[in-house]
Design goal:
The protein is an alpha/beta fold. The protein is built from 1 helix and 12 strands, in the order αββββββββββββ. The termini are far apart.
Length: 183
């Protein structure tokens, strides 16, 4: 083999190796089983493949799950049933692709004190979705009814023990949601 042929062969091998290293690794489906404590997102025993890591493909079909911190950036998140409750203001579900067919909610805001530095009331919890393609299916629901304002404050205060506004109707695919502030 000539030195030119050897050089060409070596270049092809380097290009092949570089392409393999640059290719995204396929991730197996990681499914919520609830086999640990049954509620904590970050308990590895609740998942078929441990706590989801960056680029994971995640699915939830049933369960009552509590999310207490931001997730790593998932490749995809599919929820066909169950309930995912956000706890904390910085808690976020992060995925490139999301399909919500269950219920997403957050804990009610019970704080009544204001921030001593800013003098403003600071909410405690929210539903925070970060992704490129987020779909809410016909069975999906984003439920923050009466949980967005401090106790006895906000537009819904007259009809709720928590205060806050409520969504006008259940979210369904391709239908906008209107928040009512006239309660």
């Amino acid at each position: 083999m000539s030195s030119g042929e050897q050089l060409l062969r070596d270049a092809r091998m380097i290009a092949l190796a570089a392409g393999l290293l640059a290719a995204p690794l396929a991730t197996a489906q990681n499914t919520w089983t609830g086999g640990g404590d049954g509620t904590n997102w970050f308990n590895g025993a609740n998942w078929s493949d441990g706590v989801p890591v960056a680029a994971s493909t995640v699915s939830i079909g049933t369960g009552n799950i509590i999310l207490t911190n931001a997730t790593p950036e998932l490749a995809s998140f599919t929820m066909t049933g169950g309930k995912l409750t956000f706890r904390g203001w910085e808690t976020a579900l992060v995925a490139t692709e999301m399909s919500i067919g269950g219920e997403l909610t957050h804990l009610p805001t019970l704080a009544t004190a204001v921030d001593p530095v800013s003098g403003q009331w600071v909410p405690e919890h929210r539903i925070w979705l970060k992704g490129s393609n987020i779909a809410v299916t016909a069975t999906g629901k984003l439920n923050a009814d009466f949980m967005g304002y401090r106790l006895n404050a906000g537009p819904g205060r007259a009809t709720s023990s928590y205060g806050g506004a409520r969504a006008d109707r259940r979210l369904a695919q391709d239908q906008p949601c209107r928040v009512r502030h006239d309660l």
